[in-house]
Design brief:
The chain is α+β, with helices and mostly antiparallel strands. It folds into four domains: 204 residues, Heat Shock Protein 90 (2-Layer Sandwich), CATH 3.30.565.10; 67 residues, Helicase, Ruva Protein, domain 3; 107 residues, no CATH class; 202 residues, Ribosomal Protein S5, domain 2, CATH 3.30.230. Helix content is 40%, strand content 19%. An eight-stranded mixed sheet has the order 5-4-3-6-2-1-7-8. Strands 12, 13, 14, 15, 16 and 17 form a six-stranded mixed sheet that branches. The longest helix has 52 residues.
């Protein structure tokens, strides 16, 4: 019988074998995905520091004479804050390493995309990534890095510095791509990114020598999002367990540095008092002692040792249920224990250290928008004592706590300060600049939440002008990322297809478009490739409400437009036939002078102008 061999693989090795998951399935898709990941990183860096982005994208063929697919050099540069040189190797040479794992809105969210592009370039061309970074406007660090796939670690081939005059970051990789097929999507991506990021200047130099420049047309940037604490509805058992561990205060190491800290806070200087004299000093100084020192003193009180003796032991465990304190005695080279007296004034200090915070304190300190009154109400709802220490919860109690947090409906809605929507005015300006429509309307829905993650829906609708027929044309965005692939399985298309457009006076395939933007701390993408959004019920509802609101505005415009067209036809008829009727009536009456019908025509012209003015104001 053969023995199976079990192995553990690194994240980089997993994605090396399954790169399709991240959007690197073929040369066409891979070139587009690499462009997108690097441009998004550049825009995110500028957004976080409030810098108006100047992003330059350049794609060069290594051998222009070869046919696609072939090797290209992709370079993306920005004017952002740059990256500290100590982080560069890991940021560009480690899969699942980054700064985007906190609860705030960002284009990137997996710590995966840019490194996957580098990994793809390495496995198709065996060339390193070149990173140039300047954080102070004076010195630029240049790295050439390969990724050790098996160990998921960076290999620095070269590192040099030189004087620089501007801050920013530049990333350059060599990869196999097919620009003849990907070029259209890349140009669309740059174009659509400019629409949703009107405060950015983006320049694209393509392999054919063409330059596509999209200057910024607004200078107001959205307020940078803030990192927030989690919402009770958005966590599970594992997250609660980790939060409890984080909330528990570690037993401090009683080394020379700690003993010196205790001496300093007790005002003992270098002299060593006996145990009793030291504890008398503690009683006088207790209120001024730091938490760490209080824990050490509590341990000392049960051990009955002075500080000199304390330096010769190591605390192993504090067993609260059995009221035992275990320690290793280096002098005797053996483990020993002492009883913990529950009547001691130091008992509570020590047990609280091990058992963690009370439930109500845990809720108010670790979650957003949970006050003391709400915490007490929740404790009653969950049938858990408010003073219950989190470190004493059993596995079954943890599961019950998690379920109760999900079901309790008196928590306030999630805090939306972690979101940075574009805003109605910039979105409307973008739509009007790019499409010059006859009609445009936008709406930003109030913040909502799914599974405890806040999100905001922004949507625009436009009709006529330079918009092509065959609508609705749908432009999908998530955290200001254009979503160009997999439209058929996206929640936005589902909502659009469910609308009865005839009800809103839209028939056939007229020239109109819909721009949809979802911003959230956690976009529920269906894949790591970030191309389509799952149909979460709450998101679907907000999309539908936004679209219905805008559709009613469009219907009102179409109604006014129809009335204006009727008024125009009527005016044309009056202008054509009233003079003829006047002439006929004059002849019939045997008169020489025609009646004055100019006032009638003026009234008709005024009515037409009024109708057209009403449309212009919409």
């Amino acid at each position: 019988m053969s023995v199976e061999k079990f192995n553990q693989i690194s994240p980089s090795e997993f994605f090396y074998s399954n790169r399709d998951l991240a959007g690197f399935s073929n040369p066409t898709r891979s070139l587009y995905t690499a462009v997108r990941e690097f441009v998004e990183n550049a825009l995110d860096a500028c957004d976080q520091k409030g810098v108006l982005p100047d992003v330059r994208l350049k794609i060069q063929a290594v051998d222009p004479e070869k046919h696609d697919p072939k090797h290209y050099i992709l370079t993306v540069s920005d004017n952002g804050p740059g990256m500290d040189s100590k982080y560069v190797p890991h940021a560009f040479g480690t899969v699942l390493y980054g700064s985007k794992f906190g609860l705030k809105q960002a284009r990137g969210m997996f710590g995966l995309g840019a490194t996957m592009a580098i990994l793809y370039g390495q496995i198709t061309t065996n060339k390193p990534v070149t990173v140039k970074s300047c954080t102070d406007g004076q010195t630029q660090d240049k790295f050439e890095i390969l990724l050790d796939i098996q160990r998921n670690k960076p290999v620095i081939l070269r590192h040099s510095t030189k004087p620089a005059s501007k801050r920013g970051l530049s990333v350059s990789i060599c990869l196999e791509g097919d620009y003849s097929k990907a070029g259209g999507k890349i140009r669309d991506y740059v174009y659509e990114t400019s629409l949703i990021t009107p405060y950015a200047s983006i320049t694209f130099d393509d392999p054919k020598g063409q330059k596509f420049h999209h200057p910024r047309f607004v200078r107001d940037m959205p307020k940078p999002p803030t990192i927030i604490r989690p919402h009770p509805h958005g966590i599970d058992v594992e997250r609660i367990r980790r939060m409890i561990v984080e909330s528990q205060f570690e037993i401090p190491s009683i080394d020379d540095a700690m003993i010196e800290k205790v001496r300093r806070e007790l005002g003992l200087a270098k002299k060593n008092l006996g145990f009793d004299a030291m504890m008398e000093r503690v009683e006088k100084k207790w209120k001024t002692l730091t938490r760490q020192v209080r824990v050490v003193i509590s341990i000392v009180s049960f051990l009955g040792m002075d500080l000199e003796r304390l330096s010769k032991i190591k605390i192993e465990d504090i067993d609260v249920p059995n009221k035992k304190l275990f320690y290793w005695d280096f002098g005797d080279s053996q483990s020993k224990s002492v009883d913990i007296d529950s009547e001691s004034p130091y008992y509570k200090q020590l047990t609280n250290t091990v058992q963690g915070e009370p439930l109500t304190t845990f809720l108010t300190k670790r979650f957003q928008r949970v006050g003391p009154a709400t915490a007490v109400k929740f404790a009653e709802f969950a049938q858990i004592k408010p003073e219950k220490r989190m470190g004493t919860l059993s596995n079954q109690e943890l599961v019950h706590l998690s379920d109760s947090l999900q079901k309790f409906d008196e928590f306030l809605a999630p805090d939306s300060s972690c979101l940075a929507p574009l805003g109605e005015s910039p979105l409307e300006k973008g739509i009007k600049k790019f499409f010059s429509p006859d009609f445009a309307a936008v709406v930003q829905r109030p913040a909502s939440a799914y599974s405890g993650f806040p999100f905001i829906i922004e949507m625009g609708i436009a009709y006529g002008g330079e918009i092509k027929t065959g609508g609705p044309h749908i432009y999908r965005y998530a955290n200001r990322i254009p979503l160009l692939y997999d439209e058929g399985s996206d929640v936005v298309l589902k909502v659009v297809n469910e609308i009865d457009w005839a009800r809103y006076k839209i028939k056939g395939e007229p020239p109109f478009l819909i721009v949809s933007h979802i911003c959230s701390t956690r976009i529920p993408y269906k894949t790591a490739g970030k191309e389509n959004v799952a149909d979460r019920q709450e998101i679907e509802r907000e999309l539908r409400l936004a679209l219905q609101f805008l559709s009613r505005k469009l219907a009102a415009y179409m109604s006014k437009r129809g009335q204006a067209e009727m008024a125009k036809k009527r005016a044309n008829l009056y202008a054509k036939y009233i003079p003829l009727i006047a002439e006929f009536c004059t002849e019939l009456a045997g008169k020489k002078k025609k009646p004055d019908y100019s006032q009638m025509l003026e009234q008709n012209t005024l009515e037409l102008a009024t109708k057209e003015a009403e449309i212009e104001t919409k």
